[in-house]
Write a structure and sequence with these properties.
Radius of gyration: 16 Å
Strand order of the largest sheet: 3-4-5
CATH architecture: Orthogonal Bundle
Length: 115
Amino acid sequence: MSPLQASQLLTDEYSAKILLATYKRRISAQEISQRYGIPIAACYRKIRTLEEVGLIQCVDRILTQKGKRKNLYTSCLRNAYIFFENGKLRARFQLATGVVRDFGGDWNGLDLLRQ
């Protein structure tokens, strides 16, 4: 993941709401959708992306009163930093486990315009 992608992941409205909703608590996608006004399909897409990069995880599967399984998610992210230093964009994620993931390198605005 590039530092730009990492920073966009944190600043995306739905991703940010999901990370806030799952910080230090277990919550389902349905509850996140209802509480934060995220369309359920978008909520599931963002959750999948955040899981793939290791920022949230499914910590439990419960059975609802209607007999359906519901996943409960919690954030793995404890701290996130975005830096712009000396012409370089860098992002750093510190996970609850203590693991630090750095995304850094040169960032050239012209390259972004070509994409």
